[in-house]
């Protein structure tokens, strides 16, 4: 709570909790933010099976965190997952209610299609082609209403430049 209070005192628009590996950690942050009246954005590390690292389905994570406090987070995001894997994850039965719900609207995507545990300890970077990656990101916007788009591990200015081109239709 002291960090949240300090950020609010500095005039931030909202507090963002990112790279969350578990719903328990997310719940603790949500309770602290609710106690301070802080607008909040939550972003979970997602695997290609549509689960947070602790095994919770993304849909269940969003439902649980939305039920904490008087005001749910402004929105939810995922990070550390390749956009094509994220699209498959959203299409899974347990996560299908998220598609178009307006609750999970962001992705900071990895350049690699490998899961976080497969990337851990690798000596060489695994990365998708920037154009293919950007096309997958743009497809998430069209197909699932994902509006907050950005890069995570392994991405650089090439990925973002191609994403901007896809989104602007150039």
Describe the structure in your own words.
With 170 residues, the protein is of the alpha/beta class. The protein has a single domain (2-168), classed as TIM Barrel (Alpha-Beta Barrel), CATH 3.20.20. It is 42% helix and 17% strand. The protein is built from seven helices and five strands. The protein has helices at 2-9, 23-36, 58-66, 83-91, 116-119, 130-144, 157-168, and strands at residues 15-20, 40-45, 75-81, 104-109, 148-151. A five-stranded parallel sheet has the order 1-2-3-4-5. The longest helix is centred in the C-terminal third of the chain and has 15 residues, at 130-144. It is globular and about 45 Å long. The termini are far apart. The mean pLDDT is 93.
Which consecutive residue ranges, at least 5 long each, have pLDDT under 50?
Answer: none
Strand content: 15-25%
**Structural category:** alpha/beta
The CATH architecture: Alpha-Beta Barrel
Kindly report the spatial arrangement of strands forming the biggest sheet: 1-2-3-4-5
CATH class: Alpha Beta
Helix content: 40-55%
Named CATH topology: TIM Barrel
Net shape: globular
One letter per element, helices H and strands E, the order comes to HEHEHEHEHHEH
């Amino acid at each position: 709570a002291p960090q949240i209070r300090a950020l609010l005192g500095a005039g931030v628009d909202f507090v963002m909790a990112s790279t969350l590996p578990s719903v328990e950690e997310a719940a603790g942050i949500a309770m602290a933010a609710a106690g301070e009246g802080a607008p909040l954005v939550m972003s979970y590390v997602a695997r290609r099976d549509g689960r947070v690292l602790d095994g919770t389905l993304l849909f269940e994570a969003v439902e649980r965190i939305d039920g904490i406090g008087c005001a749910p987070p402004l929105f939810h995001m995922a990070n550390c997952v390749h956009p094509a894997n994220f699209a498959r994850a959203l299409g899974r039965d347990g996560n299908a209610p998220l598609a178009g719900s307006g609750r999970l609207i962001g992705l900071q995507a990895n350049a690699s299609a490998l899961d976080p545990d497969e990337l851990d300890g690798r000596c060489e970077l695994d990365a998708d082609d920037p154009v293919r990656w950007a096309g997958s990101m743009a497809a998430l916007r069209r197909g699932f209403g994902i509006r907050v788009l950005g890069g995570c591990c392994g991405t650089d200015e090439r990925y973002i430049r191609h994403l901007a081109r896809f989104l602007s239709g150039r």
